[in-house]
Amino acid sequence: MDKIERMKELIDIINDLNYYYYTLDQPKVSDKEYDTLYDELVKLEKETGTVFPYSPTQRVGGEILDKFEKHYHIERLWSLDKCQNYGELRSWDNRIKRLIEEYNSSHAEQLPPPTYVVEYKFDGLTINLTYREGELVQGATRGNGTVGEAILPQIKTIKTVPLKIDFKGTMEVQGEGLMPLSALKEYNERADEPLKNARNAAAGALRNLDPRVTKERNLIAYFYNIGYIEGVEFKTHMEMLQFIKDNRLPAFNYAKECKSIDEVIEEIEKIEEERHNLDVLTDGAVIKINDMRTREALGYTMRFPRWAIAYKFEAEETTTKLIEVQWNVGRTGKVTPIAILEPVEIAGATVRRATLNNYDDILRKKVAIGSRVLIRRSNEVIPEIMGVVDADEETMKIEKPTHCPACDTELIQDGVHIFCPNSLTCKPQLVSRIVHFASRDAMNIEGLSEKTAEKLFEELNLKDIADIYEIKYEDLIKLEGFKDKRAKNLLNAIENSKDPSLAAFIYALGIPNVGLKTAQDLAEHFKSLEGIKEAEYEELLTIPDVGPKIAENIVEFFRDERILEGLEKLLSEGVKPHYEETTIEESIFTNKTVVITGTINGYTRKELKEKIEEMGGKVSGSVSRNTDYVIVGENPGSKYEKALELGVEIIDEERLSEIIG
Ligand SMILES: NC(=O)c1ccc[n+]([C@@H]2O[C@H](COP(=O)([O-])OP(=O)(O)OC[C@H]3O[C@@H](n4cnc5c(N)ncnc54)[C@H](O)[C@@H]3O)[C@@H](O)[C@H]2O)c1
Ligand SMILES: [Zn+2]
Fold first, then answer.
1. Phi, psi at 23, each rounded to 5°
2. Which ligand is nearest to the CA of 403?
């Protein structure tokens, strides 16, 4: 296709996507897919030197809704230029420096060398508040930058937005309306129709005609810019942020001033690490020139200021097609759906499957075979399906299984989950129990892989975990792939596993939700298998990290007749768990919560975190009353101030090096 033709096509596609995203708050594609199309258009415009006046690259935002009153901003609102790697960031920086140089060569009054402010880029809906005579008189969306929608009643539902402030002049202050991830999660647990992500949730709430709907979503806001102010002049961005805070408008407690682009990059790295600990959605960092006179000299393009740029993180969401749903039987008999997807890349990894939790989830998210689904991957290895993006596609209903896909036993419903009750002869259940039992942190039986476990189940008619202790050489040698040496090795490994530590044995039993750490805590507390077996619910709750759910799981587990039988059998086969008093060396960090801020010489964040964890401490992302120590390095952030404010004990670099040697 001819380049100009392709440009026209892209303009149509992008304008349509903008309408769905900005006007309807119902994106048709993920941001990643949108950005690819947009970048293609920008590239073609550069190549051809042609820019159509109606091109989306020439404007900010999208159409505004008629159902709201129009609001004309006093000062225009902008979008942000973006970059996706440090190379692009450095070229932005070089451009800035060149422009400053040019300016200085033709003006008597010189601009200072640039300093930068790094902030989080929040992913919500831009809001612009107007204060007059100390009162909040209007709140609006960004709209197309010049005209937005008046949504004052909706904005007033945000509890942290002050209705009155100390400053008495006219002022426009701009920020981001956000739905906290915790609020989204809570909302989605109850909602008939779950919201797909926190950005659309916030945008949809603020642009809902009924402020009661807005209120239900428990939004918050962070402010980061004053677009217009009467009679006040700020010298720097930091000064402006201070003014915002002084007027008790919520500003996020992080904005870092940097002297060089290298420092900026260091900060971005920290942000990238920290951002998953935040309760709001972020899609990048924003880098802004601190000095206001420099900003003025640099000016604006059609769409964005030259003095700021967004560093976008790798997208964590994309869309793809759902090909089929597989039902898997787990160790506990729970039958869960796994979505098989058309392979797609997210953040550098190819994704082929996603979780769907349970059948209720499928119904609520309106997922069907053949639907185009939005998937999200944050820290988890396996991504989650957030919802369907295009309901028009031809699809087929997902059927709820009535019988076990492995053993054909009729399934039973327990709450939202379905289970195969046949724990005795249902192959995947027993096989995964055996594999877990034999795993390294459990009984550590080398050579008992999933394949081998399947073979034992099929050929030797294994009915129970304890049966592995009855396996004989004559049995094994008959099996395909088992020669003398391999058979002997496996038998030895099985024999040698009879003397496990109590913690490993408890872990090996596979009590629901009891991982290695909890198993160790249980062993530590009760010191004997009998003790754990007889443990009362209340006593279990006294163990750190054991909540009501796990306590219940443990009590129920040891009440199950079949499990007790299996346990007896294991013991009669000669398995003897033993408890050894282990003395973990105490350190100053043992059982303490530690926060790190600033750069620590000789350590990356990750290394230091690991070191502290090795010494028994827990590293947390933010300072609170529960923080025991704050480690303060070079150029500490606001966490340092918070620590001082709360009187948390500070460890400086010198003391740290004495502690960790
Ligand atoms: N999926 C879709 O169909 C679709 C359609 C249109 C746009 N989009 C997405 O939206 C992007 C463009 O939207 P945009 O013009 O709103 O730009 P943007 O979201 O990339 O950046 C500009 C906005 O960032 C916000 N922001 C957050 N934190 C900030 C901070 N600390 N300082 C300053 N600003 C901050 C401001 O509200 C500002 O308006 C695209 O790149 C794409 O990812 C997606
Ligand atoms: Zn089954």
1. -90, -40
2. 2
> In one letter, which amino acid is 550?
I
Binding-site residue positions: 31-35, 79-80, 119, 142, 176, 288, 312, 404, 407, 420, 426
Of the chain, the percentage scoring pLDDT greater than 90 comes to: 75
CB contact at 8 A, 457 and 431: yes
Q: For residue 308, which phi and psi values (nearest 5 degrees)?
A: -145, 155
Strands 417-419, 412-414: pairing kind: antiparallel
Q: Angle at CA 81, nearest 5°, toward 80 and 82?
A: 110
| Secondary structure of 62-97 as H, E, C letters | CCCCCCCCEEECCCCCCCCCEECCHHHHHHHHHHHH
Question: Which residues on neighbouring strands pair with residue 550, listed in sequence order?
Answer: none
Domains of the chain: 3-58 (1.10.287.610), 82-312 (3.30.470.30), 317-415 (2.40.50.140), 427-572 (1.10.150.20), 593-660 (3.40.50.10190)
Asked if residues 17 and 3 have their Cβ atoms less than 8 Å apart, the reply is no
Q: What value of ipTM does the predicted structure carry?
A: 0.96
One of 28, 121, 270, 642 is an active-site residue; which one?
121
Is 177 in a helix, a strand, or coil?
strand
Question: Is 397 an active-site residue?
Answer: no
Indicate whether 583 pLDDT > 60.
no
How many angstroms is it from 511 CA to the middle of ligand 2?
19
Q: How far apart are CA 475 and CA 461, in angstroms?
A: 11
Q: Write down the residue that tokens 């004053």 correspond to.
A: 226
Residues 27, 616: Cα–Cα separation, whole Å: 45
Q: SS3 letters for 410-448?
A: ECEEECCEEECCCCCCCHHHHHHHHHHHHCCCCCCCCCC
Q: Are strands 629-632 and 649-652 parallel, antiparallel or unpaired?
A: parallel
Q: Which residues are annotated as a binding site for Zn(2+)?
A: 404, 407, 420, 426
The pLDDT tens digits of the residues spanning 426-439 come to: 999 999 999 999 99
Q: Which of 19, 26, 77, 121 to mutate to test the pocket of ligand 1 (most atoms within 8 A of CB)?
A: 121
User: How remote is the CA of residue 430 from the centroid of ligand 2, in Å?
Assistant: 10
Q: Do the beta carbons of residue 630 and residue 643 sit within 8 Å?
A: yes
pTM to 2 decimal places:
0.76
CB-defined site of ligand 1, < 6 Å: 17-18, 20-21, 27-31, 34-35, 60, 79-80, 82, 119, 121-122, 126, 142, 176, 224, 286, 310
> For the chain, what is the mean pLDDT?
92
User: Using N-to-C axis directions, what is the helix angle for 450-460 and 427-438, rounded to 10°?
Assistant: 130
**425 Cα–ligand 2 center, Å:** 8
Q: Which of 228-237, 355-364, 638-647 has the lowest mean pLDDT?
A: 638-647
